Amino acid sequence: MRMAPEQLRNQLRGLFSFPVTPFTAEGEIDLPRFREHVRWMIENRPAALFVCGGTGEFFSLNLEEYRVLVGAAAEAADGQCPVIAGTGYGAALAAKFAEAAEEAGADGLLVFPPYLIQPEQDGLEEHYRRIAASTSLGLILYQRDNAIFAPATVGRLSQIKNIVGFKDGLGDMERLLRIQREAGGRLAILNGMPTAELSAPAFLGLGVLNYSSAVFNFVPDIARAFYQALRKDDRVAINRLLDAFYRPLAQLRERRKGYAVALIKAGLRVVGKPAGNVRPPLVDCNDKEEAELKVMIEAGQAVIQNLAPVSRSPRS
Predict the structure, then answer these.
(1) Does the residue 315 lie in any domain?
(2) What CATH number did the domain enclosing 160 receive?
(3) Could you tell me if residue 20 is inside a domain?
(4) CB under 8 Å to 52, separation ≥6 — which residues?
(5) Greatest CA separation found in the chain?
(6) Do the Cβ atoms of 3 and 107 come closer than 8 Å?
(7) CA–CA dist 70, 101 (Å, integer)
(8) Contact at 8 Å (CB) between 256 and 246?
(9) Which residue range is the domain that position 88 belongs to?
(10) pLDDT (tens digit, 9 = 90+) per residue, 183-204?
(11) How far apart are CA 48 and CA 56, in angstroms?
């Protein structure tokens, strides 16, 4: 049964994952591989699955591909965790994606910034009001790129019943603190920075322990170990994992635009769970970079082998 917005708000706590969208050699969606990938991720107990998001290459999917992928994820999840689908572009097109997601069984929506435009705050607010009015699903606002919110704007939007969360991809802690206070506890706050683990200690200073981990796609053991270390405020474990895996990964990510996605698919190839290449305009990593990533993965796993056993509590 689909979650009501208030139920979804209460579920937005913990470590989230963003599945990739596998493609065939011909560039078509690889649905059997997607189902397998989603099932594997669910076995590793994410708090929620964000499908057809940035890591899932939402920008390259047509509406029918999107509908099929969201439906497959909802079927595979089978109520074990919320399935939240991406939506975006202009308000009218975002509403069509929202309708498709709702029909396919999604529990909520992550709303990407409006296409291209640098809007004023009143225009930005009206954009999200229209999307919220087009669906009964719970919505998560996403602050990044050209969607930078004034705290007062978020405060007003937080009064809308089905706007339930705020994902921050900006990293401005002063602004986020003010947004948090304006929302008055009505929104779940999520860390949505690239390689979120690098900024997780700073977000924790604001009481935000919820974040999406792209590396959960290919090294869920490392992702969960870091999350548990963060929950315990185990600075030794946090710093060892940052130094062995996350900082080198971020340095590799910064070499070329779009590597935040391409590296995830490279990681899946390294661990023996290939999901095809990225779609243009993204470009794939080269063999040398993939070999470097393999060394990072081995270093991260060596660290967790020497840590205390990670708690197996469900979706903590």
Answers:
(1) no
(2) 3.20.20.70
(3) yes
(4) 21, 58, 61, 66, 69, 70, 85, 86
(5) 52
(6) yes
(7) 6
(8) no
(9) 5-223
(10) 999 999 999 999 999 999 999 9
(11) 14
